[in-house]
């Protein structure tokens, strides 16, 4: 065959760009996380301080609070999306007039920029101009104020994420459900299995790989949710919606404490990698068992 | 030398298309050396963070955590 | 659940679609209201449309500049990523390069990393390290085009690889036997066959770049600011110009909507990064 040199030349620009903007920043941030560096402080030098940044980080109540709300957000959002997405996917398995149009409409939020989703929900929920606080007040006398109530702000971010990303879960689960063979279901019905039994013993094991893959993707995205929350609540009130990405954005740049900021970034990256890896293993494990 | 080194040869001699090698370590999944190195690093960081939070304030130096991690890492790479 | 009557299901889906569409409709409602009407009782039905917000956005020189930046950056980035991805995938599928599967895996992992983590190192590198004399990549269009490659280039490689794998190598070989140069083979044999795949990749990378906010907010100050960052500039603690903000949102939304109609069936594959085929 023709020379491999051409192949390397074709690959070179890609590798160069990803090296400069992917690998170098990665090693740079890891290196910086072991140093103290604040260019606008009294001592603007880069000083090696060992694990001091991490020593401070594990006791940093702001960071730990951010970690806590991030976990809560991710769990609530992804679980809700899975349940709602599954119910909608099963609803799509039957025929009804206008199915294609509804499917198209349902896909619509997926293409929208996160920041636009944030601004839409800001317009929906800001007390003076939003329709939701107005209706809630009129119907049940509840005063929804995402600027003051931590619970309300948290709930609205979860609802926003569900609105934005449930379609993805629905569509992936439809793809999984469509490809299921009919035989086991017919057999189970002949044997007199109930709906619940069929779901737990036949449907769920068969769509499990698709479910795990969907959870994997949603978890990764939910962990790095920044834009919409920044737009909607700006991390507030207090630190109720200060998810990890928002925390980095708000903490690192205004304070110009680059060494400590790097340590936060490294730990966030570490947690993301661990979560992704565990799920990846979860995806592979059932396959290797056979 | 080790059991791990013999594995690939067995697979090469087999005629069947790539049979998943039976998991031979204590880890619940099948791994190659890179996976085990990766697992060791992840555990290393986890041990160090827990150490900084809970054990170092009691007076134990971080170097002990490194020692434990390296020992555990070597064990995982060797036997996992 | 809803047995029997299919029209009941349609009713159910009308309700779900209402939930999906209403927030978008509300965005439009706010965008065509004058500021004085905003704080009165919210009307769900529009009685009159007030287009001044759109005119204001369109005639604002700063915002027009942002729009132009967004357009240049996302188009440049989409072209660059699709081009580089095409060549890279050609190399990955046609040559016997040592360790190419590891390289492939490594390129993909770049996409998985949370962008928030890379804000700081990229900011520092672009201000301090990647510089030629006084020229830094910070706040330049070319800088943003390159930075967006971190998430779009892995995506392009991921989606283009199956396309190139699907083109029989015998075609290349036949052309080589006929005495064609490598460039001729790529441009006249392989490229035309890849066009549908390239088009989808181009469109999706374009949308991802157009929608990006976080990196643009940190790595630009004025000259290369994009429309998404312009949007956030209208949200301040002292007072938000809601109508203008809604109008900018609509402007940002329109290209995505156009794209949506073009590549609807590929969106799921794109967003799940090919892990699930939609």
UniProtKB/TrEMBL annotation, chain A:
Keywords: Membrane, Transmembrane, Transmembrane helix, Transport. It comes from the Bacteria. GO terms for cellular component: plasma membrane. The chain crosses the membrane at residues 7-31, 63-88, 100-121, 151-178, 198-220, 258-280. It is a multi-pass membrane protein. The keyword Transmembrane helix applies. Residues 63-279 form the ABC transmembrane type-1 domain. SUPFAM superfamilies: MetI-like (SSF161098). It is found in: Cell membrane. GO terms for biological process: transmembrane transport. Belongs to the binding-protein-dependent transport system permease family. This is Carbohydrate ABC transporter membrane protein 1 (CUT1 family). It comes from Allosediminivita pacifica.
TrEMBL record, chain B:
InterPro entries: DUF2160_TM. The chain crosses the membrane at residues 37-55, 62-78. Keywords: Membrane, Transmembrane, Transmembrane helix. This is Putative small integral membrane protein DUF2160. It comes from Allosediminivita pacifica.
UniProtKB/TrEMBL annotation, chain C:
Belongs to the binding-protein-dependent transport system permease family. It comes from the Bacteria. It comes from Allosediminivita pacifica. Residues 67-263 form the ABC transmembrane type-1 domain. Its main location: membrane. Keywords: Cell membrane, Membrane, Transmembrane, Transmembrane helix, Transport. The chain crosses the membrane at residues 12-32, 71-92, 112-130, 142-160, 242-263. This is Carbohydrate ABC transporter membrane protein 2 (CUT1 family). One of its GO terms (cellular component) is plasma membrane. GO terms for biological process: transmembrane transport. It is a multi-pass membrane protein. SUPFAM superfamilies: MetI-like (SSF161098). The keyword Transmembrane applies. InterPro entries: BP-dep_ABC_trans_perm, MetI-like, MetI-like_sf. It is found in: Cell membrane.
